């Protein structure tokens, strides 16, 4: 079984560790986090240091996954690692309690947690996070660095742009398009298209304000 490292050793990393362990495709070599002391651990997996550690153990490490919840921060780290270690693959993690239907595809680095559903022929981009019970129905297109929080649900033929967030319990009806860098607030019901660079919430969801790329939402 190939060794991988997990970037990030916070609360989100615990869930990623769980998905990787239960999927059983990779062995977790350890965690990398420049903000945590070397030697601390999560479920017995040690924090080994920062990304420099890869250079020193490149032969043993065959892949990596980024366990950072914020979409923009995850993208910055992915870009930095890709630049420094261009031949190090980003792997996916899919909890065995998730369902990936026929024809559905996941981009590299994407994490799918327990109870999530990716239905028929839906395409999920790179480095996305589908939290527990997130559900995307058939023929949808989800960009890169997108988060679907726990319980976020879409109908079929939905589009979500890069870096966008469907927060806790959001519902999106079929065939709606959501732009990039947009945050749909918790509990919203999206009945019509919402453009990019916006924060929207409510039932029906309406745009409350504009939003810059990288603005914090967690
Ligand atoms: C939408 C959100 C990002 C906040 O956006 P914001 O523009 O910073 O909003 P503020 O917190 O300044 O609140 C502004 C107003 O909108 C209201 N509001 C905020 N979020 C709302 C929501 N989801 N639904 C309805 N009203 C909301 C606030 O109560 C406040 O109302 P007031 O002016 O009457 O006091 C945040 O409320 C949210 O829903 N976050 C998602 C949390 C989540 O799902 N976390 C898990 C991620 S994995």
Automatic annotation (TrEMBL):
Gene3D superfamilies registered for this protein in UniProt: 3.40.50.20, Hexapeptide repeat proteins
InterPro entries cross-referenced by the UniProt entry: AcTrfase_PglD-like, Hexapep, PglD_N, Trans_hexapeptide_repeat, Trimer_LpxA-like_sf
Origin superkingdom: Bacteria
Domain PglD N-terminal: 3-80
Pfam family, one: Hexapep
NCBIfam families: NeuD_NnaD
Name of the protein in its database record: Sugar O-acyltransferase (Sialic acid O-acetyltransferase NeuD family)
Organism of this sequence: Paenibacillus forsythiae
């Amino acid at each position: 079984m190939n060794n991988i490292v997990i970037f990030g050793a916070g609360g989100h990393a615990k869930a990623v560790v769980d998905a990787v362990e239960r999927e059983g495709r990779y062995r977790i070599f350890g965690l990398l986090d420049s903000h945590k002391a070397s030697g601390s651990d999560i479920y017995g997996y040690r924090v080994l240091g920062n990304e420099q550690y890869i250079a020193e153990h490149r032969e043993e490490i065959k892949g990596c996954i980024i366990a950072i919840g914020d979409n923009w921060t995850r993208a910055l780290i992915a870009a930095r690692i890709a630049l420094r270690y261009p031949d190090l693959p980003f792997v996916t993690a899919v909890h065995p309690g998730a369902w990936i239907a026929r024809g559905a595809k996941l981009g590299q680095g994407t994490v799918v947690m327990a109870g999530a559903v990716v239905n028929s022929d839906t395409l999920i981009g790179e480095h996305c996070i589908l939290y527990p019970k997130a559900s995307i129905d058939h023929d949808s297109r989800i960009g890169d660095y997108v988060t679907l929080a726990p319980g976020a649900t879409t109908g079929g033929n939905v589009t979500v742009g890069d870096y966008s967030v469907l927060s806790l319990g959001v519902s999106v009806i079929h065939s709606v398009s959501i732009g990039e860098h947009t945050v749909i607030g918790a509990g919203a019901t999206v009945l019509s298209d919402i453009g990019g660079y916006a924060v929207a919430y409510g039932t029906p969801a309406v745009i409350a304000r504009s939003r810059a790329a990288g603005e914090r939402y967690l």
